[in-house]
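Minutes, structural biology subgroup

Action item carried over from last meeting: produce the structure token record for L-lactate permease (Natronorubrum bangense JCM 10635). EB confirmed the sequence was re-checked against the source entry. Recorded below for completeness.
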Amino acid sequence: MVSTLDVLLAAIPLVLAGVLLVGFLWPATRAMPIAWVVAVLVGFFIWGMPVDWIAAASIVGVMTAIQILWIVFGALLLLYTLMQAGAFDRINEGFAKISNDRRVQVILLGFFLATFIEGAAGFGTPAAVVAPLLLALGFPALAAVIAALIGHIIAVTYGAVGTPIIIGIENPLATTESTNTAITDAGFTVQAYSVEVAVWAATYHALVGFVMPLFAVGMVVYFFGDQDERSLQPAWDVAPLALFSGIAFVVPYWLSAQISAEFPALMGAMVGGAIVVGALKAGYFVPDEEWDFPDREEWPAHWVGTIEPGQASAPGVEQGADDGATTADGGLVASQMSLFRAWTPYILLVVLLVVTRVVDPLPAFLQGEAVEVAGTTITAHQLLFTTTWEGIFGTGLDGGIDWVYVPGFWLVLCALIAIPLYGMSGTQVKAAWAEAGEKLVAPFIALVFVIAMVQVMLQSGAHAEGVESMIFVLAQATANAVGPAYPFVAALIGALGAAMAGSNTVSNITFGGFQFEAASQLELPTQLIVGAQAVGGAIGNLVAIHNVVAALATVGLVGQEGRVMRLNLIPLVYYAVGVGIVAMVFSYVLFPGLF
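Output recorded by EB:
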């Protein structure tokens, strides 16, 4: 039986992280090293972890962080390469020129473009890119941030080509003996189980999140429309377009989740966006009257920061060989690049990811397994495709980095292909690589310590028989306290993790094992509960201080974090309650027999 003292001691690292991050608004680069030290002290003095086990668990965390950063680097490199070439501006123009109606722009850029960027890059990138684009179109800075943050949430579970599921769910479950054994005994591999989780997470999102385009439009028109007579009527006027957009997104989104976690956000945005743009061009769902913000002189001071709406631009680009230019002050000149050419690297990325995940024997080969080709056995290790460390320091813990299988390699490859495709100059290439590299410093420090902390907590019971880990203790206590209502709060737990750490991936790493153990204790379907965790980790980004600060900085509005978080509590509560109700129905009525 778990004692109250054990629960309190196990919770200390997480509570400390929450207090420092949320209460004192410390950056993760300061808070997480301290939280890791505390987890180490609790593990050593209370859980009796030997030093070699603590070191091994921390090294597993470091290797996991490196793999995440490899993906992040590739995602950012491709994004900044397209920005430097002018291709990203051309993509933006393709959206913006379809309609001058602000509600339509919220749907096309705040929803479809933001979800696409989330699927390709993740890690707070969508709001930091889409918000200044909306500002450039004439949106109030605060409205631009709200629209971008709300719009991309449905895609966060699969952000950075599946990182929150692959790294946040699959890897921790695979490296924890109790969960790995339970999953194997149930007839799954951990990889197959993570796909199941991805499917259920997509199901939650599809049922609850298809209204998010309408939600984003409603937030913008109500809070940034006529201040004397606030009304949701302008949102209801475009409800057919908004709901059609949500459905057009979630159908390919849900279907692609059946294959792999890399694809839902990308496919939903690309296929759904193409369908909606085609419908608008054909004259369907076009608003009868264009809606716009009040006159500029009527805007409250807190709507706008140091950058005047309509004068902002995306990150500066230089002139390519024949596709775009910059003005003397760094502003963009409209690119003449074709939309297909602008989208080509991302289209190629999707093709490569599909091929390397569904065409045998490529998946096994790229993950370091021996495969037979034309009668010859080939192992990827011989080509340095993977780096592994088995039995670290003589413990039972293993660490590894899949350099080629994970999307980071294919993102970098597509960025390199983009250089001759766009005829980029050496200066442009250097700027893209430098920008991507600079963005990795703070995440590296934060991720190394947060994942090391989580691994120490996860492995705190692995060194001896009969010792349960800190995560297991917390899961058991929560399950006992909440009881049958646990499915209703599962997403809220994930949201708490993301709000603290600013990352769905980190939330999943921190609470994925927790949720699995809690579901097992209550004899609930684990896929459904861990799937709700993956959704909660997405919606927590609405109030994650890291993401909010980053987005506000891009529109010159730093200092308005409280307003953004207060407004974003509205969609967060809707999403959390909606997923909670669906999880209860799934767990007790429709699918109680799942593992």
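Discussion: Residues 312-334 have pLDDT under 50 and may be disordered.
Next step: EB to file the record with the rest of the batch.
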